[in-house]
Give the backbone structure.
Amino acid sequence: MIPEIGHYALILALCVAVVQGTVPIYGAAVRNSALMSIAKPAARGQFLLVLLAFCCLGYAFAAKDFSVLYVAATSNSQLPLHYRIAAIWGAHEGSLLLWVFILTVWMVAVSFFSTHLPEAMRARILGVMGLVSMGFLLFMLTVSNPFERLIPAAFDGRDLNPLLQDPGMVIHPPMLYMGYVGFSVAFAFAIAALLGGNLDAAWARWSRPWTTVAWCFLTVGVAMGSGWAYYELGWGGWWFWDPVENASFMPWLAGTALIHSLAVTDKRGSFKAWSVLLAILAFSLSLLGTFLVRSGVLTSVHAFATDPKRGLFILVFLAVVIGGSLMLYAWRAPRVGLGGGFSIISREGMLLGNNVLLVAALGSVLLGTLYPLFLDALDLGKISVGPPYFDTVFVPLMTPAIFLMGLGPLAQWKQASLPELAMRLRWAFGVSVVTALVLPIVMGQWTPLISLGLLLAIWILTTIAVDLRERLALAGGGGSLFGRLAAMPRAYWGMVLAHCGLALFIVGVTMVKGFEAEQDVRMNVGQTATLGGYTFRFDGTQPYKGPNYIAARATIHVSQDGREVTVMYPEKRRYTVQNQTMTEAAISPGFLRDLYVSLGEPLEDGAWSVRLYHKPFIDWIWGGCLVMATGGVLAISDRRYRLAWRRKEVEVPAGTQMARQIVS
Amino acid sequence: MKPRHKRFIFIGLGLLALAGASMLILNAFQKNLVFFYTPTAVANGEVPKGHGFRIGGMVEDGSLKREGDGLTVHFVMTDMAKRVPVTFKGILPDLFKEGKGAVAQGQLGADGIFLASEVLAKHDENYMPPEAADALAKAKAAGAQTSSTLVVNPR
């Protein structure tokens, strides 16, 4: 009965979405206030209905209702409750429901935080979101219904993929989807502005905080996915350039470009058409990412053939959303106008450079991800594009982007002078170059790439330091140092923090790539192996029984200079339901290094093949991402946005307006 | 400078950047493509010499041998038509098993032994890696054709 209620709620939600997607947009076109005002209650109503459906599916999982096909396929009676709940988004149908649910959450958020928007704008935004949700609901109800019954009911479920039985996987998809779907707000803002023909600086100001929030979630989501791959797959890698990873990274690149381009549109009125295009791009890539990962195309393009209706729907949906919005763009964007002019050497020019490079990087990832799929689909042979391709492309594209990143915040809007910039930054540049050359030698190994990585990271940090110092001097002698620091707008601090996060990330990547050590060894009981200055002693394995698996758990004592550092317990698990083996690595994390041990295969006499890793600075990779996301959060807590939400009109006094001109 | 000239410079620089990036990308792309071959193709000598590629198929039952160091393994990859011996030093993935599908990446040695640098298992036990399944299907189709001419009717 409960699943039927959920199904019914979805059908009702579709009806509401149809109304929400058509009536308010029509109302905005004919300036009928009554029709426009339907948007808000419709969005909230739709949220409640999808919430009900979501709870129904959750209940089916909690109550182990194996008469629901989806529940039987992705959970098991022995699966612990928290993983049964997480199994809601463990496969295709449920993750679509999660997607729509999060979309309605964003809709409700828009309906609450949009009181300062003109009514027509709000009606169009919610209308566009309604159309998107309509597409997804239609997709679920026609070809991937999570509430489909299995008659007769299964005696027990097939269990969740053991790889997904992990705390990281419980929160990773919701985070990622918050990011993906969050771009639907920026998309809806852009489409609404195109529809209304009022694409101005105010539009950029409104959509900026939404985009930044979505970007923060996506940053955390991608970082969590990478972290999960690191500790769960047992291979010690943190990024494989796997299509699944690329699918989440492409919207991130587009979103990063969008944030920067919106900043220009907001401040200077330029880049309007470009920002709109990026908003469309970011959301299109989010859609592509959702479908790529969950439709099964990646494991085999012929997955579409097993369920042609599903594949056809996805292709048509993508074509309508992307094609439709691009058509609207082609029709409306030429009217937008160009905004303020600027010289090539200016902050706008550098942000433009950053955007071009980010989009080029995005294009390279898209090519490497989709080309093999195309070839395969057309039966032209099977190829794979491995990490070497992405590495060779990414470093040369990101190096100038990061160089500009140091320059940009110090350059003036509209017109800057190169010699003057060079004067201001000569110390930063000198310090970066010298440190980048000397530091690796001190650490005992020099390669060009290590130096390059360190150069970029230190360049970011030193230019920030110069920028801060100049701004402090500009703030005048009044007030204490702390007071002057605190007086700077939070949006500025957000940018500083996000850029520092990237620097930390680069340090992490450089150090791991340059200094990591790895060893595959056969270890008898009591035998030791040495790696990175640490001695690992293998003390054999004991059997261990988990809730739904059995494992061999090894004990490995780690010591350094004769002192015991830690004891590690890597496991080899066998999940009984699917009879699937899984390596559970043991990790001893640290600020400056991780030790990582995973079990290979059992050999004779209790010996095992064991894989040992010493990974310097690896946690900085994810730490850097978190710092980046924190920067984003700080930026949206800026006073101007809080003011904007409180008032109907944004009325910033002329004086602060001037002061803010220098802040990006 | 007139605005029109400025625009030309902008567009010129943009095109230049785009061309540079495309060159870089396509060049890297060309160099790092990894092609996939079946054991039959390997046996027929259709594979590139001195260039890495992937091979997929079934790990032949009873072919897995381990050397004394516990790390170097030898096994045979087959598509039920032709067999290719493979050597790999390292830890095999969890899902690697005799009689199951696998994909190996590496180079073909002069002695006809495939020296794998990586053995992949991005699949669960219910289905094969798509490349491996493809190799088996191809060999089966080819085999079915040749054998159909050889079928001896018992009657």
User: Anything to note?
Assistant: The interface with chain B takes residues 161, 234, 242, 299-300, 302, 341, 343-344, 353, 356-357, 360, 363-364, 367-368, 371, 381-386, 388-389, 392-393, 396-397, 520-522, 578-583, 600-601, 603, 607, 609, 611 of chain A (CB under 8 Å). The two ends of chain A are 55 Å apart (CA to CA). Residues 417-515+620-661 of chain A form one domain. The longest helix of chain A spans residues 201-232.
